[in-house]
Write a structure and sequence with these properties.
Pfam family, one: Glyco_transf_4
Largest sheet: 6 strands, parallel
CATH architecture of the largest domain: 3-Layer(aba) Sandwich
Radius of gyration: 21 Å
Structural class: alpha/beta
CATH class of the largest domain: Alpha Beta
Domain Glycosyltransferase subfamily 4-like N-terminal: 30-197
Helix content: 40-55%
Order of helices and strands: EHEHHEHEHHHHEHEEHEHEHEHEHEHHHH
Shape: globular
Number of domains: 2
Protein name: Putative transferase
Mean pLDDT: 93
Strand content: 5-15%
Domain Glycosyl transferase family: 213-358
Organism: Sphingobium cloacae
CATH superfamily of the largest domain: Glycogen Phosphorylase B
Oligomer: single chain
Strand order of the largest sheet: 2-1-3-4-5-6
Number of helices: 18
Length: 388
């Protein structure tokens, strides 16, 4: 079985990039014939030229489409597995796959199919206007905080919706949680029998830590409004507990340093692991729905419990009272109460951390992930290919 993975790397990396890299690496280790068709947003030129290039290619990327068509003709994969496609590839490739008679599997790491900016958060609050009233609302609300970018995102989303690229051409959708499955079904009208759940591969650390010995609460993620870092910092001041923040390369730590908050800016997995392992708990204070929150599972893989917003897929990834605690999204006082509870109760902290480690071992195991992935591939593979 030959699988062609297609993805557009994000400029700042992130959990979805890590997730598809992990799936591709696992597939190769397990003997699948895997190739990649890749574009990288880091290659975009700086300034207005880069924005215009992203704008044009987000609507239609002729160079990428020609290269992709040539790849299909040359390699004839059994399945095309797509991930992020914007801005340098685009969902027009689905039509090329349909003409070639090659089935498509698409992994959903965010809300790209139902939201122009993929988060259902406009920088101020949760928003479903693109789904409910049309993509032009991304421009009206200036969801990218830049009129040109907001217009570009609105136009490409409207085009994808008008041509119904995803629903018409994707044979099977892979999501990470039951929440995302239900969202895709209810909001994008994808039949449930075309949606499969396959959680990320998260390897458990050889030995878990004792989180009750942790010296701070950790945050790991991009410094963007929907991640809720400001809520955590306010709650930490209220609870009088220390916080350590880790962000991807490119994030500016200066505002945090001025506030006296330790910050680690890294893409290095070992350094991030050290941040997790020194924590009493990881805090995921997201204000958007999230589709998985890979950092939560990564912390749990070290035996560190998680305190997360009670929103979206975080209620799937973090099990209330079992592997972590929840609080009301955006409510700093409620988060402060949970921070203080975890800080003052080492027995609770240890119990949640122990259960979190066991949960990762059983739920995010690579054998289980690969078995679920192969079931999807077998389901969509053409009979003639399966019998060849």
């Amino acid at each position: 079985m030959k699988i062609l993975h297609v993805f557009n790397r994000h400029r700042g990396g992130g959990g979805s990039d890590n997730a598809w890299d992990s799936t591709i690496a696992l597939s190769r280790r397990r003997g699948l014939s895997v190739d990649c068709f890749e574009r990288d947003s880091r290659a975009l030129p700086p300034g207005i030229r880069g924005r215009l290039t992203a704008f044009a290619n987000g609507l239609y990327a002729p160079g990428a489409l020609r290269s992709f068509a040539a790849r299909l003709d040359r390699d004839r994969p059994d399945i095309v597995h797509t991930h992020e496609l914007y801005p340098l590839i685009g969902p027009w490739i689905f039509e090329l796959c349909a003409r070639a008679g090659i089935p498509v599997v698409h992994s959903c790491y965010d809300f790209r199919i139902t939201c122009a900016v993929a988060t259902h958060h406009d920088g101020r609050t949760l928003c479903t206007r693109c789904t409910d009233r049309g993509a032009h609302h991304a421009l009206l609300r200036d969801c990218r905080n830049n009129p040109l970018e907001s217009a570009a995102f609105a136009l490409r989303h409207a085009l994808a919706a008008r041509r119904d690229f995803y629903r018409r051409h994707v044979s099977r959708f892979i999501v990470l949680t039951p929440f995302s499955r239900d969202w895709l079904h209810e909001r994008a009208h994808i039949p449930l029998d075309r949606i499969s759940i396959n959680e990320c591969v998260i390897p458990a650390a050889p030995r878990p830590v004792d989180p009750a010995k942790g010296g701070y609460f950790a945050f790991a993620g991009r410094f963007v409004p929907e991640k809720g870092l400001d809520i955590l910092l306010e709650a930490a001041r209220m609870a009088q507990v220390p916080v350590h923040v880790a962000g991807p390369a490119g994030c500016d730590p200066a505002p945090l340093v001025r506030q006296g908050v330790p910050a680690t800016i890294t893409r290095d997995a070992d350094m991030l692991a050290q941040v997790y392992r020194g924590a009493r708990a990881l805090v995921v204070p997201s204000l958007w729905f999230e589709t998985f929150a890979i950092v939560a599972a990564e912390a749990m893989a070290h035996g560190v419990p998680v305190i997360a917003s009670r929103i979206g897929a975080l209620t799937d990834t973090v099990r209330e009272g079992e592997t972590g605690l929840h609080f009301r999204p955006g409510d700093a006082a409620d988060l402060a109460r949970q921070l203080r509870r975890m800080w003052d109760d080492p027995q609770l902290c240890r119990a949640l951390g122990k259960a979190a480690y066991a949960d990762v071992q059983s739920r995010f195991d690579e054998d289980a992930h690969f078995d679920r992935l192969m079931q999807v591939y077998r389901t969509v593979a053409r009979p003639s290919r399966r019998s060849a």
